[in-house]
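Quick one:
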Amino acid sequence: MNAVNGATIRNLAQLAHAELVNAPSEDMTVTSISLDSSEVEPGGIFAALPGTRAHGASYAKDSKASALLTDADGLAIIRSTKDPRPVLVVDNVRAVLGQVAAEVYGWPSTSMKLIGVTGTSGKTTTTYMLERGLAAAGCKVGLIGTTGTRIAGEDVPTKLTTPEAPKLQELFARMRDAGVTHVVMEVSSHALMLGRVGGTQFDVAGFTNLSQDHLDFHSTMEEYFEAKALFFDPESPYAAEKSVICVDDQWGVKMAGIAKDPVLVGTRGQDGVDVSAHQESVDATGVQHISLEVRGAPHTLMLPMPGKFNVANAALAVALATEVGVDAEAFIQGLSGASVPGRMEPIDCGQEFVAVVDYAHKPAAIAAVLETLRGQVSGRVGIVVGAGGDRDASKRAVMGAESAKGADLVIVTDDNPRTEDPAAIRAAVLAGAREAGGRAQEIREVAGRAAAIDQLVAWAKPGDAIIAVGKGHEVGQIIGETTHHFDDREEMRRALTARMGASEEMD
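Output:
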């Protein structure tokens, strides 16, 4: 993706307030920018950041980039190799990276309506709802989030929930050039803290909720909240033009106090909200019948996604869409076909019980999905649960506790242990489950995730519900530093098929 406005090394230096070292005799056009030295082509800039193991500038000599962007430490490394290429030197590369990347690609976010969604749970679901509803209303939609990127319905591989600034601006440029009119994207707390959304103009920001997560990155819940607040505080450089905030929890109420003239969404009968929603009934299939009121106008919605938490997600999506001028009724009609990979995704092999896979990897999310299943079936509920390694260890016991509170059977297994001892992670989850004093009649430990799913399926009886949580749409399991193919949906389907086959043989 090339620049469209002829960004040059000198105007980029001016924009970034950078010292230009090895200035070229004639100004040069910059066509791209990347944090990956191996990806930069001639005409592009390699942005070299300090890393945990080495400074990115150590890789500059092997890059095909025509120019470099780095800090003083990076410049010292570059000079040691006698590299003659122009270097933009700044105090903090991340602080200017978004602006520089936006300039290189012609400030693409200004050419489209851009909707950002943040919060702990519900970001992915809300963005998928937005994509579906906007498309139904006649918009050409781009999507960026946890499950990847789509441009007008076509998948584009990406690695992060919110890509790094150069990749993000490149994606925006691709979307602009493809005729996209509306972009919906997840905005993580990491992205806000690290400046990944710098140079991006959001038309409206949405807030779902806040619960315990990422406390390995943010020391406290207050710090976690403050990171999210960067998206709503009018004094923040990342604040959107408009705000839509769900005030179903205390953090939403607090966020509404920070934002300027926010649109308020509520599903708990609160007074003073602009958009309200209420679950009227639920079909046996999990389809929810929801009544909505959008600034005094009544609407009805048939949502094929179970869970009361999805009532709030749908209401937030409707409010966000109307804030960018989309007809509410056309949008709502589109939600009748909404679905999200790995989010309360049913696995149906003809069995006489409910089997579901979900991405829930936070205590509040686990509690919510178990409550949903409990409301759908008359029988028992079983869960396979684990926690990721090299991530917030403080939530492990709480995840176990919420599992034991909501399920009759808890099977503790491995998630992505990464470089930690899997047994130690399981022990923490098990301790929380056993100390919770909840509903669980049985708590098991099964090391292998596939074996855990097998045991869960074998346990289920007609009228029960079972769920594997934590991985959802993911198709890999990280053990050590190696990613092995693993898909909960495939494993659940395999186990169900094997059970159904065994049952037929017995008949």
